[in-house]
Predict the structure.
Amino acid sequence: MKDSRVKIVAVLLAFLLPLAALPAGAQPLPDVPTIQVPAGGATVTGQVTANGRNVYRVSANSLQALSVAIASPGNNAMFQVYDAGASATGATGSAVVSGTTLSGARTADASMAWIGVIPQTGMYLIAVDSKGGAASYTLTVQFQ
């Protein structure tokens, strides 16, 4: 009986501890799509609302060269690439991402194209933001 209680507590802790790290009232974004990147790259099309944000996951290995580019009418969309360990909370279309952005792929860079070397193996987040108004976009992701 004691062993089963220990197992139950261990399972509960494994589930609840990651939630405890979130800011009060924040919920993990449940449906962050993962971009599968085959040889030759992957392309995702989408729409971001005015002042909105869409978030994607990309699995990458240490020392891979990652290339990300975005095209949108009027250059009205930009992106940021967040390091492994970043998290997204909130609702789809208005997500809040917590974590460190990779050099050259930060909000201040207003990135339209970026190539960088992945520092560690893990799941990276790409956040697509509007520059004010709603925007349709095509996001291209590939490993070099």
Summary: The first strand starts at residue 42 and ends at 48. DSSP finds one helix and nine strands in the chain.
